[in-house]
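Quick one, T. Sequence first:
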Amino acid sequence: MKTIDELLAEGVAGRRVFVRADLNVPLDGTTITDDGRIRAVAPTIAKLAAADAKVIVASHLGRPKGAPDPAFSLAPAARRLGELLGTEVAFATDTVGDSARETVAGLGDGQVAVIENLRFNPGETAKDDAERGAFADQLAGLADLYVGDGFGAVHRKHASVYDLPARLPHAAGDLIATEVGVLKKLTDDVERPYAVVLGGSKVSDKLAVIGHLLEKADRILVGGGMVFTFLKAQGHEIGASLVQEDQIPAVQAYLERAKERGVEFVLPVDIVVADAFPDLKTKAPAAHETVPADAIPAGKMGLDIGPETGRLYAEKLADAETVFWNGPMGVFEHPDFADGTRAVARALVDAPGFTVVGGGDSAAAVRILGFDEAAFGHISTGGGASLEYLEGKTLPGLAALED
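Structure tokens:
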């Protein structure tokens, strides 16, 4: 995989460099609520601009239906990128149309432009190879070189991620190189004890990675909504908590396999419950109580791990030389149910070894709860991509960057 530094050594001055970034940031209207992904890719863009390349930045945002939708415009991300770079960033109001062509044609050496949301064109996400390829051909017409640096999208077989690199000389950006290096530390060159913390709402989203990590990890700690399927699989009452009944046999099999392999599988000892899901808009106080994890009252909904579990999980991470965390421990967006996620984040900060926050909601939680990002070994920009890599899957966007 060629690096961006090798590309720069060959010379990029005056050349049009297409950077597939991940500017898929959360928005409240037109206000960015977490700019972490933009900040993560900005150094690669700045490096190219400093070398006098004409930089064309492209990304998706959200899930528009293959047509323009103002709610998913990249204009706010383009403005924020300009603020971070300290320079004006041009913005094209389409992907491969007149605005994109005119905007790119107007770039001077060292200047940067962002084109509109790639998913406004149905060719970006098309299952049909020919349709995807046709869109990739149009994108290739805008540029001379390609830099892949959108780690959060490399698990997608999309035109700008998978097909476009085959049409242009290509290299991996610094962000992707960093992300891959970190993931190799979690798979190929692990320092032990190796602890994994998994949360989030659906156990089905994490079963494959649990299966793969049972061959790698020493301890697996579980929280979030997915934990209730585990508790029910053990025969416990879970009240009105989230559960995936169809996943119970698979969960039981994994618990048995963990026991056979000597992997410590740690589940909560207490749970914070409420009568209903809280209002995340107003964040109004919600009546709640802490109960034993094996005795959740009928009608009560589990919304966070309890304080005893927070302390237990901190103990399990205290001597870990490698920690990977993906998925919050509860409804961290509401202050009444954020303590479990806060406890895990604090435990990672205090852990002596290499700590990785695996993107997605975990990365958002770290920022929302006010932790210093520098206190963690690495905060990934791609939750889904990280998980698929740890499952042992081939990621299309990384395969496309191989020489």
